[in-house]
Amino acid sequence: MDRLQAMQVFTRVVDTNSFSRAADTLDMPRASVTTIIQNLEAFLNVRLLQRTTRRLNLTPDGAAYYERCVRILADIEETESSFANTGKGPRGKLRIDMPGSIGRMIVMPQLCEFHSRYPDIELMIGFGDKPVDLIQEGVDCVIRVGTLQDSSLVARRIGVFQGLTAASPDYLELHGVPHTIEDLQQHTAVNYFSSRTGRVMDMDFVVDGKSIEVKMRGAIAVNDAEAYLACGVKGVGLVQIARFMALPHLRAGELVEVLPQWKPLPMPISVVYPHNRHLSPKVRVFVDWAAELFERCPLLSGQEDAEQRCLPTATPKSSAVKHGTPDVAGTAEVVV
């Protein structure tokens, strides 16, 4: 029996709370995972896991063995990496997850740079706005917006999320431009609802240093950031969207910012990873690269710069001429 492999399989079964998910994340047949755990228990002559139809539970011996395995595997990885990095650099499969809009607009266009630096890292990138259980799903790190709530995770802040309120020129021509928070009661919004809770998210504004929420009526509610933005561009209603997503459409005249003096509350953008993976060289280099990438993008590093080199430009529409050039200077759940 390969005891090191058995430790790796056992810890992954515990982390994912599933033989099947452990097998998937390790690229192994489920039968092999089951056999390895059975052989390990026979070798140690103890029961490590109590199996029920719904979940797995560690026995007291299993909990003690798990804690030691985690320390041993971390020490081995750190030792191997200290030698491997002197020659070839970090290697292996790296599973990450991020909001689709950040992935498609910020990360993916620069991904060749990361691959050039670290050709031996195989990236598996997931896009989604739903919360990800890093441990159970075998994800190494995620990019998320908002304040970290889970104390079992580590978060490194890499940027600042700043939103704005906008509408299409056609919508504003038909319904007028709101000039105060109270004016919003006469307007229609595109509503965004949480994929996790189903709750419609109210618009948020910072007024006199305090964040206030405004509930608005709307005929359409979506739970996808790109669909939400598309509704705003098509004139369905007011939207409150990330500046980095809105900027190409502001430049093209497809959106106009409203109430620029009362912006939504800024929120941190962080790379989040489990405590027991903080020593992984492949995670460390990705986190460092992501921080560097976001620092180069003024929209996401907290700088108020109208000319952004990190984003594409949308194709102008005829309405831009009619309404003039808009002013662009101007885990909590957010629209990303």
- The structural class is alpha+beta
**Anisotropy-based shape:** elongated
Strand content: 15-25%
Q: What's the total number of strands?
A: 15
Task: Give a short overview.
The chain is of the alpha+beta class. Helix content is 38%, strand content 21%.
Walk me through this protein's architecture.
It is a single chain. The chain has helices spanning 3-16, 19-26, 30-44, 60-84, 100-107, 111-117, 134-137, 169-175, 225-233, 243-251, 281-295, 319-323; strands at 49-51, 56-58, 92-98, 121-127, 141-145, 153-161, 163-167, 191-193, 200-201, 203-207, 210-214, 221-222, 239-242, 256-258, 267-274. It has 3 domains: 3-84, Orthogonal Bundle (Arc Repressor Mutant, subunit A); 92-159 and 270-300, Periplasmic binding protein-like II (D-Maltodextrin-Binding Protein, domain 2, 3-Layer(aba) Sandwich); 163-267 and 312-323, Periplasmic binding protein-like II (D-Maltodextrin-Binding Protein, domain 2), CATH 3.40.190. The radius of gyration is 24 Å and the shape is elongated. Helix 1 crosses helix 2 (19-26). Helices cover 38% and strands 21% of the residues. With 336 residues, the protein is α+β, with helices and mostly antiparallel strands. The strands form 5 sheets. The chain has a 5-stranded mixed sheet.
